[in-house]
Amino acid sequence: ILPSELNDGLHGSTPFVCRAHDKGFIMVLRSGSTNIMVYKSDDLIEWTRIASMLMPRRSQIDDARIIWDEKSSSYLLYFPMLENSKDSYMSLYGIRTDKNFKNWSKPQQIADWGMNIKDISVYPNPDGGYTALFKDDKNGSGIYVSSAESLSGKWSEPVVITPEGDKATECPAA
Question: Which stretches of the chain drop beneath a pLDDT of 50?
Answer without folding.
Answer: none
